[in-house]
Amino acid sequence: MNRDISTYKIPVSVLVIIHTPDLQVLLLERADHPGYWQSVTGSQNVGETLRETAIREINEETGLSPTAYPLSSLSDWETENQYEIFEEWRWRYAPGITHNTEHVFSLCLPEPKPVTIAPEEHLAYRWLPWQQAAEKVFSWTNAEAIRDLVSYYEKTKTAHSPCPII
Fold it and tell me: What one-character-per-residue DSSP string does 47-109 give?
């Protein structure tokens, strides 16, 4: 029995690093892999812009509403990562799809906020200092993005930055 092509995930996703100005980073523990921690991630839906995907995924996975903060609090890093999809998750994609293109975003919150996790996706959440968060995540792209937080904000700093890194 063949699956309808529209039921497959698109191999384009977002990675959203949610953090505070003092670089506390929000991590979520995967429900399908206890002990695997990550930032917000998710696949793009047909017809969505990447920004719309990031906003939807933040809301679905944390209950946070990025639109409640200044528009520039959600930053598109204009960075793409390509990686091989883990074998165990390839069934979600059309036959023959082995790689995903991930687009990096960040959301700066004024302080750590409690979140409402999606229990079908996550077991727990933690706010950690960026160094610990980078060590805890299982994905190399996630770890790299967390390590790049300081340099990203130094490059993009303006007088009206919504996220003055301390």
Answer: T--HHHHHHHHHHHHH---GGGS-GGGEEEEEEEEEEEPPGGGGGGB-TT--EEEEEEEEEE-
pLDDT confidence band for 161 (50 / 70 / 90) = low
> By the 8 A CB rule, do 28 and 136 touch?
no
To the nearest whole percent, how much of the chain has pLDDT over 70? 91
Residue 101: strand pairing partners: 12, 82
Q: Which residues contact 136 (CB under 8 A, 6 or more apart)?
A: 27, 37, 128
Distance CA 142, CA 158 (A): 25
DSSP 16-32: EEEE-TT-EEEEEEESS
Tokens 């609090």 identify what position? 73
Helix then strand count (H, E) for the chain reads 4, 7
State pTM to two decimals: 0.89
Task: Write out pLDDT tens, residues 30-47.
Answer: 999 999 999 999 999 999
CA atoms of 55 and 15, how far apart (whole Å): 11
Q: Report the relative pairing of strands 74-84 and 40-43 from DSSP bridges.
A: unpaired
